[in-house]
């Protein structure tokens, strides 16, 4: 294709990417470098139904003038990235100085909001993703082996977790794991511990969130694998049957190699999705025991009266970097495969 | 035309004090009334009365939503503002003041505010910036029947509350008799602020935005909250004020620190469980540490008006709100029972007893300091681990301080 | 040793009959070819032998043992598929070793067995490659190697040459023939190509619409087709068939008259092979204007249109005639086959 034709051909998508991807990311990065102007405060007397008090107040007029002069706010450079709410280098240094063992150091460092969120996010990503792939694959194999008549209904029910909105799904489960809900009460009876609460224990909350994540995403993997299974070459499958392969060996030597590209695809999608885990944390009211990077962004923007745009932007940028780091190995592999085939 | 209208309204105003309760809403002039409000029963009663003012010349639209706090600044920043009236509380008025988005109401009060009482006027530096119409605070709800059966006196301090809870547990009445809203986030932050208020100590260093809670009073407040968890159910970290009622009606708890604005539902003898409702009573929040100050904050709900609106809209909106807040509002016993009204003509009802008791015992209002919201958030996000026993109180307060300082620096309050 | 018997085997899917009353005894070491047009039931028959399809009724007996209810892997057979069925992620060596691996053959024997098979199918230079890096012929040889490596009692080959180009087909065909004569393993081979059937088979089974039409050696089938279907399916070109009547030993059809036939009077179909008849200057049984002249290289083919049917005769490659020219052909009674006009069955000669 001549270069000119090629350029014209991809121009619309390039423009769209510029407009909807590059520009927003650029603006988020820009935003993360500024913080609010220094507030000009005045003392005022507040009087109301409960009497009068003297309190400090923002001088709104003076602030309006400041903002009109410099609308982006006060230049802070990478300050927001390094502050205690994010990478917290200074606090890490303090913790390093005052702790004696690695265990203590990690324990205290993981208590910093950003690292706490990062810890959960990574754990969620790397535990849920493989389980989603394995479970989805098993369901697909199971459904594929069913008689045709039963397939329709079973597929429908297998897809339910994905059809249900994440928030609703997590709320339903949330009530079931309540200490008086069906799952919570059953667990209490099984373990004979009336104070057992899936919602209170951090470990159990993590497990609950992981289970929910697998439950919610497995249908996606299932659908992809099920579609893939329909295309497994019949000849090769039958060869394996005649050659003497057991069902397990057929799966290992024929089905899995054939579905490998789909595994890569699902892993990619799931890594991206799971790294941005958010809804289940809200749905399960799990913010006390588990926060994710996305949840940090949300709480920066919605947690207080005035949104902390710089914090939210900095966390967004760090999350984006995280996704890039996470996907790099998979992308490099795909690139190599592509080059080898070409 | 205008003259006759003016004449009728003046007459109505004259008779207003004399009890012309069934008066129609008549607004002089034309205009548009656009109300943004939180969504709960007592506010709904006010807002729905304001909608009665709709006519050929006056348009009334309302948006009642629990998300009002998140949209109010953006909605009032436009010119003209998306809403003329913002129904606010002492906490949520601050962001509007910070941005200078509300207008002084002195002229409107002078012209149309004959029904208002002095205590309703929120003056900041002498200017009336908002009109309060109800008071709210947390109060101690308790099961009078259970206390009586077990010979337990109504607790006036947290120490007594813990003893009473222990007594109920020992008597085999209830395993987890206590309910407080410990859901991380706004609820948990509010619980700590209430508790800390009971110490009488300031939240910030004088004349600056540096936080001052990382001290003995802060630790003592936290330890008291920790002591409460001993008598709360296993899911306490998900407890919040919206979800207390099922626990109460299921006879799982005997003491609850709850909002006055929700009390009506708990003592409603026409409700789901009339016998429990009948045995439910409220008192002032307990004090602790021998300070004698009820550990709670006082709140008022009221309304402010947007700056970026025309004079016609402002006049029409103010009149509509004045109609809504006329004594006729609280003449309806059902509405009167919903809250502690500050409106002219209101006779205190059971739901208001706790608020009044708190006021009389010397509770202070929720601070209207602009950076209080940031501290509230930092508290809500960082105390859960302490209450679950994974951190010491000192560590928890250090986390709070770090989170608050980071946010306050970013917001420009601390350099 | 590895005698394979099919006793009254039937396969039905609902009301559709795929194979009907298939009854056949395949001797040890025999090379049997199932031949027929697509959809005639030959592949289904083979898949039933392999165990990839259930038998609706009847019995399959392998080496004296009823295998109806055995899994494919327990039948001691191996199979070569039309599209090879190789394992794409395994090397040639590993592909061929696969049956040994999954059948738990002792490891120390693997290398020797695999190398023997690899040498037989002449793949030594390629044994480390993946199937994707091989040509079609090489891939089919990998499949053959995989089939022979563990010395099964029966080979099944399902159109193994169909995906190869014409030239490769000839050489691979020869290789298969050679392999079978060395290994002397009972082989069932499915094809729709009658040349493959004629060249490879000890015995051919011609099938149509799920039923056996004829069983016999290639020569028998060529020389004495049991019915008009076999006559028209075997041979290149297929046997000429002309409809007509016999009256007193003389067959009369459109443009053709043959005398001296031994058959009762009545309507019949007369058949003869193009290579058995010859062009004559005069006095031929066919005398008609030429419809087409085709040069085949080693011969020329003259075609007439007799009534509805086209009739061809092979002649010397230098013979020339114009379309429309009057040409005569000799069709003596000795080369003629007679078939019942209604049932199509061959009449005794």
* CATH-defined fold name of the largest domain in chain C: Rossmann fold
Number of strands of chain A: 4
CATH architecture of the domain at 118-341 in chain A: Orthogonal Bundle
Gyration radius of chain A (Cα, Å) is 26 Å
Unreliable stretches of chain A:
none
InterPro entries (chain A): ABC_transporter_permease, MetI-like, MetI-like_sf
Domain ABC transmembrane type-1 (chain A): 118-330
Subcellular location (chain A): Cell membrane
Main location (chain A): membrane
List keywords for this structure.
heterotrimer, B: 415 residues, alpha/beta, D-Maltodextrin-Binding Protein, domain 2, 19 helices, 15% strand, disordered N terminus, C: 349 residues, alpha+beta, Rossmann fold, OB fold (Dihydrolipoamide Acetyltransferase, E2P), 8 helices, 24% helix, elongated
Q: What is the compact description of this entry?
A:
Chain A is mostly helical. Chain A has helices at residues 3-32, 60-69, 79-82, 89-98, 102-109, 113-144, 148-163, 166-176, 182-191, 202-229, 234-243, 247-275, 279-283, 293-302, 309-341; strands at 34-35, 41-48, 51-58, 74-75. In chain C, the strands form four sheets. In chain C, strands 6-7-8-3-9-10 form a six-stranded mixed β-sheet, with helices on both faces.
């Amino acid at each position: 294709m001549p270069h000119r034709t090629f350029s014209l051909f991809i121009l619309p998508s390039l423009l769209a990417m510029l407009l909807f991807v590059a520009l927003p990311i650029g603006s988020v990065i820009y935003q993360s470098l500024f913080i609010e102007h220094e507030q000009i405060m005045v003392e005022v007397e507040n009087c109301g139904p409960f009497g009068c008090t003297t309190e400090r107040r923002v001088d709104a007029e003076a602030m309006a003038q400041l903002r009109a002069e410099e609308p982006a706010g006060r230049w802070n450079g990478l300050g927001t990235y390094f502050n205690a709410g994010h990478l917290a280098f200074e606090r890490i240094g303090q913790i390093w100085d005052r702790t004696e063992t690695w265990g203590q150091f990690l324990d205290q460092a993981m208590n910093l909001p950003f690292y706490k969120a990062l810890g959960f996010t990574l754990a969620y990503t790397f535990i849920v993703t493989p389980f989603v792939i394995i479970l989805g694959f098993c369901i697909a194999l199971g459904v594929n082996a069913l008689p045709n008549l039963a397939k329709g209904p079973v597929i429908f029910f297998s897809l339910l977790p994905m059809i249900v909105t994440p928030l609703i799904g997590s709320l339903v489960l949330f009530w079931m794991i309540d200490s008086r809900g069906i799952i919570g009460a059953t667990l209490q009876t099984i373990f004979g511990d009336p104070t057992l609460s899936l919602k209170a224990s951090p470990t159990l909350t993590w497990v609950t969130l992981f289970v929910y994540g697998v439950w919610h995403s497995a249908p996606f993997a299932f659908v992809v694998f099920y579609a893939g299974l329909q295309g497994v070459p019949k000849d090769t499958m039958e060869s394996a049957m005649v050659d003497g392969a057991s069902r397990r060996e057929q799966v290992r030597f024929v089905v899995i190699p054939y579905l490998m590209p789909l595994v890569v695809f699902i892993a990619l999608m799931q890594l991206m999705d799971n790294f941005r885990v958010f809804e289940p944390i809200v749905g399960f009211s799990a913010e006390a025991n588990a926060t994710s990077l996305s949840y940090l962004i949300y709480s920066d923007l919605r947690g207080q009266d005035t949104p902390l745009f710089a914090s939210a932007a900095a966390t967004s940028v760090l999350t984006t970097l995280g996704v890039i780091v996470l996907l790099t190995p998979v992308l490099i592999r795909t690139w190599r495969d592509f080059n080898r085939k070409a | 035309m205008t003259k006759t209208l003016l004449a009728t309204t003046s007459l109505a105003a004259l008779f207003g004090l004399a009890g012309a309760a069934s008066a129609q809403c008549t607004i002089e002039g034309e205009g548009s009334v656009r109300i943004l409000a939180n969504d709960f029963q007592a506010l709904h009663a006010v807002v729905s009365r304001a909608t009665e003012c709709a006519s050929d010349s006056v348009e009334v639209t309302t948006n009642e939503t629990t998300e009002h706090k998140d949209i109010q600044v953006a909605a009032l920043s436009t010119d003209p503002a998306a809403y003329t009236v913002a129904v606010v509380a002492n906490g949520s008025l601050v962001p509007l003041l910070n941005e200078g988005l509300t207008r002084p109401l002195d002229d409107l009060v002078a012209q149309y505010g004959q029904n208002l009482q002095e205590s309703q006027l929120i003056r900041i530096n002498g200017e009336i910036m908002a009109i309060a119409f109800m008071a709210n605070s947390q109060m101690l709800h308790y099961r009078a029947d259970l206390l009586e059966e077990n010979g337990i006196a109504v607790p006036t301090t947290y120490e007594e509350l813990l003893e009473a809870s222990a007594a109920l547990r020992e008597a085999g009445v209830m395993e987890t008799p206590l309910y407080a809203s410990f859901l991380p986030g706004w609820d948990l932050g509010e619980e700590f602020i209430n508790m800390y208020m009971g110490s009488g100590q300031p939240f910030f260093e004088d004349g600056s935005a540096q936080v001052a809670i990382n001290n003995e009073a802060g630790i003592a407040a936290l330890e008291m909250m920790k002591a409460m968890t001993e008598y709360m159910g296993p899911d306490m970290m998900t407890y919040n004020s919206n979800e207390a009622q099922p626990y109460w009606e299921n006879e799982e708890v005997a003491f609850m620190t709850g909002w006055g604005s929700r009390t009506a539902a708990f003592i409603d003898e026409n409700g789901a469980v009339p016998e429990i409702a009948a045995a439910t009573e409220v008192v002032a929040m307990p004090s602790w540490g021998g300070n004698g100050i009820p550990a709670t904050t006082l709140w008022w709900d009221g309304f402010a008006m947007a700056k970026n609106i025309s004079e016609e809209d402002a006049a029409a909106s103010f009149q509509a709100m004045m109609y809504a807040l006329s004594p006729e509002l609280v003449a309806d016993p059902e509405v009167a029972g919903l809250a502690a009204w500050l409106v002219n003509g209101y006779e205190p009802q059971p739901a208001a007893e706790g608020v009044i008791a708190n006021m009389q015992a010397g509770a202070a209002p929720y601070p209207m300091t602009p950076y209080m919201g940031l501290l509230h958030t930092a508290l809500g996000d960082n105390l859960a681990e302490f209450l679950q026993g994974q951190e010491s109180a000192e560590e928890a307060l250090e986390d709070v301080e770090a989170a608050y300082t980071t946010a306050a620096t970013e917001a420009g309050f601390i350099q | 040793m590895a005698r394979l018997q099919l006793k009254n085997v039937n396969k039905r899917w609902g009301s559709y009959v795929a194979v009907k009353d298939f009854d056949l005894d395949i001797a040890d070491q025999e090379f049997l070819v199932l031949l027929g047009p697509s959809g005639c039931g030959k592949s289904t028959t083979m898949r039933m032998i392999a165990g990839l399809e259930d038998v609706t009724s009847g019995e399959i007996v392998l080496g004296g043992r009823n295998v109806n209810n055995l899994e494919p892997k327990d039948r001691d057979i191996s199979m070569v598929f039309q599209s090879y069925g190789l394992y794409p992620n395994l090397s040639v060596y590993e592909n061929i070793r696969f049956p040994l691996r999954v059948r738990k053959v002792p490891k120390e024997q693997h290398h020797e067995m695999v190398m023997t098979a690899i040498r037989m199918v002449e793949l030594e230079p390629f044994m480390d490659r993946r199937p994707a890096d091989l040509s079609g012929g090489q891939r089919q040889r990998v499949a053959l190697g995989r089939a022979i490596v563990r010395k099964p009692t029966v080979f099944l080959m399902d159109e193994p040459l169909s995906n190869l180009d014409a030239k490769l087909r000839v050489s691979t065909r020869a290789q298969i023939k050679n392999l079978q004569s060395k290994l002397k393993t009972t082989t069932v081979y499915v094809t729709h190509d009658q040349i493959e059937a004629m060249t490879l088979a000890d015995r051919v089974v011609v099938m149509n619409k799920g039923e056996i039409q004829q069983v016999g050696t290639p020569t028998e089938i060529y020389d004495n087709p049991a019915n008009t279907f076999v006559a028209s399916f075997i041979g290149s070109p297929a046997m000429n068939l002309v409809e007509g009547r016999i009256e007193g030993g003389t067959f009369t059809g459109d443009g053709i008259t043959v005398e001296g036939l031994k058959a009762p009077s009545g309507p019949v179909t007369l058949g003869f092979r193009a290579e058995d008849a010859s062009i004559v200057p005069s006095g031929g049984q066919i005398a008609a204007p030429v419809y087409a002249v085709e040069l085949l290289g080693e011969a020329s083919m003259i075609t007439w249109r007799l009534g509805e049917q086209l009739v061809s005769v092979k002649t010397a490659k230098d013979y020339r005639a114009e379309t429309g020219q009057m040409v005569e052909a000799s069709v003596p009674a000795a080369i003629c086959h007679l078939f019942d006009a209604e049932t199509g069955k061959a009449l005794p000669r």
